[in-house]
Design brief:
- The structure is a single chain.
- This protein is an all-beta fold.
- Helices cover about 0% and strands about 55% of the residues.
- It is built from no helices and eleven strands.
- The strands form two sheets. Strands 2, 4, 5, 6, 9, 10 and 11 form a seven-stranded mixed beta sheet that branches.
- A hairpin with a 6-residue loop joins strand 4 and strand 5.
Length: about 120
Protein backbone atom coordinates (compact mmCIF):
# COMPACT_ATOMS: atom_id res chain seq x y z
CA UNK A 1 0.00 0.00 0.00
CA UNK A 2 1.33 3.40 -1.01
CA UNK A 3 0.78 6.48 1.14
CA UNK A 4 1.54 10.14 0.57
CA UNK A 5 1.76 12.19 3.75
CA UNK A 6 1.88 15.97 3.56
CA UNK A 7 3.01 18.45 6.17
CA UNK A 8 3.83 22.14 6.49
CA UNK A 9 0.53 23.91 5.92
CA UNK A 10 -0.84 26.59 8.19
CA UNK A 11 -1.78 30.23 8.59
CA UNK A 12 0.57 32.90 7.27
CA UNK A 13 0.33 36.63 6.67
CA UNK A 14 0.41 38.06 3.14
CA UNK A 15 3.98 38.26 1.92
CA UNK A 16 5.04 35.39 4.16
CA UNK A 17 6.46 31.97 3.35
CA UNK A 18 5.62 28.33 3.95
CA UNK A 19 7.30 25.09 2.96
CA UNK A 20 5.21 22.03 2.22
CA UNK A 21 6.60 18.50 2.31
CA UNK A 22 5.16 15.25 1.02
CA UNK A 23 6.72 11.87 1.71
CA UNK A 24 5.75 8.72 -0.15
CA UNK A 25 5.96 5.44 1.74
CA UNK A 26 4.91 1.83 1.48
CA UNK A 27 5.36 -0.55 -1.42
CA UNK A 28 7.26 1.58 -3.95
CA UNK A 29 9.29 0.29 -6.90
CA UNK A 30 9.70 3.58 -8.71
CA UNK A 31 8.33 7.13 -8.59
CA UNK A 32 7.97 9.09 -11.82
CA UNK A 33 6.54 12.62 -11.67
CA UNK A 34 5.57 14.31 -8.41
CA UNK A 35 3.63 17.49 -7.97
CA UNK A 36 1.39 19.80 -6.03
CA UNK A 37 -2.20 20.75 -6.76
CA UNK A 38 -4.53 23.06 -4.88
CA UNK A 39 -8.24 23.49 -4.48
CA UNK A 40 -9.89 26.62 -3.14
CA UNK A 41 -13.51 26.61 -1.90
CA UNK A 42 -15.93 26.50 -4.80
CA UNK A 43 -13.17 26.02 -7.36
CA UNK A 44 -11.73 23.08 -9.25
CA UNK A 45 -8.46 21.45 -8.27
CA UNK A 46 -5.59 22.99 -10.26
CA UNK A 47 -1.96 22.16 -10.88
CA UNK A 48 0.52 24.32 -8.98
CA UNK A 49 3.84 22.73 -9.92
CA UNK A 50 5.29 19.41 -11.01
CA UNK A 51 8.74 17.84 -11.18
CA UNK A 52 9.97 14.74 -13.00
CA UNK A 53 12.43 12.20 -11.64
CA UNK A 54 15.13 13.92 -13.70
CA UNK A 55 14.22 17.26 -12.10
CA UNK A 56 12.41 18.90 -15.00
CA UNK A 57 10.01 21.40 -13.42
CA UNK A 58 6.80 23.01 -14.56
CA UNK A 59 4.84 25.78 -12.85
CA UNK A 60 1.42 27.33 -13.16
CA UNK A 61 1.64 30.92 -14.36
CA UNK A 62 0.14 32.23 -11.13
CA UNK A 63 3.05 30.94 -9.00
CA UNK A 64 6.05 31.48 -11.27
CA UNK A 65 8.76 33.40 -9.49
CA UNK A 66 7.16 32.83 -6.07
CA UNK A 67 7.02 29.05 -5.57
CA UNK A 68 9.79 26.49 -6.01
CA UNK A 69 9.27 22.74 -6.29
CA UNK A 70 12.03 20.28 -5.45
CA UNK A 71 12.40 16.60 -4.64
CA UNK A 72 14.70 14.21 -2.85
CA UNK A 73 14.60 10.92 -4.72
CA UNK A 74 16.47 9.10 -1.95
CA UNK A 75 13.73 10.09 0.52
CA UNK A 76 10.79 9.76 -1.91
CA UNK A 77 9.86 13.29 -0.90
CA UNK A 78 8.68 16.35 -2.79
CA UNK A 79 8.74 19.89 -1.43
CA UNK A 80 7.03 23.17 -2.29
CA UNK A 81 8.66 26.36 -1.08
CA UNK A 82 6.07 29.12 -1.21
CA UNK A 83 7.24 32.74 -0.93
CA UNK A 84 5.44 36.06 -1.30
CA UNK A 85 2.16 34.40 -0.45
CA UNK A 86 -1.07 36.15 -1.36
CA UNK A 87 -4.60 35.75 0.02
CA UNK A 88 -5.60 34.16 -3.27
CA UNK A 89 -3.13 31.34 -2.56
CA UNK A 90 -5.46 30.17 0.20
CA UNK A 91 -6.49 26.60 -0.58
CA UNK A 92 -6.06 22.96 0.35
CA UNK A 93 -2.81 21.80 -1.21
CA UNK A 94 -2.58 18.19 -2.38
CA UNK A 95 0.50 16.17 -3.14
CA UNK A 96 0.42 13.92 -6.20
CA UNK A 97 2.79 11.21 -7.36
CA UNK A 98 2.89 8.74 -10.23
CA UNK A 99 4.15 5.53 -8.65
CA UNK A 100 4.94 2.00 -9.74
CA UNK A 101 4.28 -0.12 -6.67
CA UNK A 102 5.99 -3.26 -7.86
CA UNK A 103 8.33 -4.43 -10.62
CA UNK A 104 5.42 -5.75 -12.72
CA UNK A 105 2.89 -3.08 -11.74
CA UNK A 106 1.68 -0.23 -13.88
CA UNK A 107 2.23 3.39 -12.92
CA UNK A 108 -0.72 4.70 -10.90
CA UNK A 109 -1.72 8.13 -9.64
CA UNK A 110 -1.63 8.66 -5.87
CA UNK A 111 -2.84 11.59 -3.77
CA UNK A 112 -2.11 12.88 -0.31
CA UNK A 113 -4.84 13.84 2.13
CA UNK A 114 -4.32 17.57 1.64
CA UNK A 115 -2.95 20.32 3.84
CA UNK A 116 -4.65 23.66 4.43
CA UNK A 117 -2.79 26.84 3.55
CA UNK A 118 -4.43 30.07 4.67
CA UNK A 119 -2.99 33.46 3.79
CA UNK A 120 -4.60 36.19 5.84
CA UNK A 121 -3.74 39.17 7.98
Amino acid sequence: QVQLVESGGGLVQPGGSLRLSCAASGSIFNIDAMGWYRQAPGKQRELVASITKSYNMDYAAFVKGRFTISRDNAKNTVYLQMNSLKPEDTAVYYCNAVIKAGRYSTYDNYWGQGTQVTVSS
